[in-house]
Records
---
Amino acid sequence: MINDFKLTENFNLREFSCKCCGAVKIDSELVQRLQILRDRIKRPIIITSGYRCPKHNKEVGGNDNSYHTKGLAVDIVVKDYGLDELETLARAVGFRGIGVYRIKNFIHLDLGPDRRWIL
């Protein structure tokens, strides 16, 4: 299987690949911070969106300068875990851009400048 190798104890490269074409570009700092977050919460983290090629990013309504297209962002779900607590821990491990999507029950994490939004 393409991109089928471990990056950290709990994350595989294919988890970060584009949903439409399988391409992947992911920053090692992002992966390491995600592993630290996983270690702290002691629960699986499901990556619902990692790298997005420009075509896929446009299809999902992403911003033209999305950090997903630069390999600097992920959208994640952690089952049975509060979004507020997850946001606090994500900030503590060094994620700077954090979007909390309450209606869809996921959180966006990136390595861009400090900012926060809630939808």
---
Amino acid sequence: MDKKVIIQTENAPKPIGPYSMGVAFGEFIFTAGQLGIDPNTGEIVSGGIQAETRQALTNIKNILESVGSGLEKVVKTTVYLRDMAEFSQMNAIYGEFFSEGFPARTTIQAGALPKNASIEIEVIAFR
């Protein structure tokens, strides 16, 4: 029987509430939504939507790699944007992290995000 495994790594921001940064169950990995937080400072990176997108995806990459997975094994992403007008800027950076055989994706404009972030991204991946 598969057991739920809580994922923790120093290479991604510590959760800012009562949740895990990621959970593995069987062959699936589910990440919590990741903001563009620098794990060393605990603060949102400066530089706007592109810098925040890059940091959020780097945090996700680090969470996945800590349990032997990677971005190439992502099957689904959900992207929450504070402002849909920044979609093309986010999409440009997103395309740097994922190559052909892209994961399915949903993008939603959120009324507000924690820490006044511009973006939050969560993924489902395989080990």
